[in-house]
């Protein structure tokens, strides 16, 4: 039987907030749907360390925290955009959970400490193909433009994490990654399998012009 988890409250966020932080959209919701499909597996695994990279509004980190429920899990979140970290904090408070967002590039300040320890990793990355100048500018500005600009094939930021992934995941660890067709999900699956990980397309869905997927990448 599937478990149904309510979508986190985000009514506290305003039009002004959405000028600075990514407004939850179909790509955000497909990630929640993937987590909901795996809810029982995630609960049974009793994850200890979870991390969302690029938490934006905080909707996915909040959802994951609610899905896991009270216990010994630590849900960490990062975002390159400081405004997004503040909004993630507000979303956590509005949903009566605790999050401690960290403003940084990917998980850089945590990488060494989290090696081999991440049980659940979430990333709805900036996945839109752009030229390298737009990617560089938006990453430097650390504003809302960084929500989508993904450079060549929309994969430049994602690839940094995928290359580190075998070192980051715990023995039972799983990553949930949002992609669009331009990111070449089949190539991602092959690449991760060559690294010795199991990679499966869990959901595929058209949303307007985007053909979205969620990939689950795991050791087992
Ligand atoms: C598509 S949005 C997703 C936001 C949210 N997770 C959701 O699903 O609605 C991508 C997020 O990644 C963040 N981001 C972009 N580049 C990043 C980087 N180098 N390190 C950390 N976060 C980054 C953006 O600021 C943005 O909040």
Automatic annotation (TrEMBL):
Subcellular location: Nucleus
UniProt-listed NCBIfam families: hemK_rel_arch
Lineage of source species: Eukaryota, Fungi, Dikarya, Basidiomycota, Agaricomycotina
Superkingdom of origin organism: Eukaryota
UniProt domain Methyltransferase small: residue ranges: 50-139
Protein species of origin: Kwoniella pini CBS 10737
Name of the molecule in the record: Methyltransferase small domain-containing protein
Cell inner membrane as UniProt keyword: no
Entries under SUPFAM superfamilies matching the protein: S-adenosyl-L-methionine-dependent methyltransferases
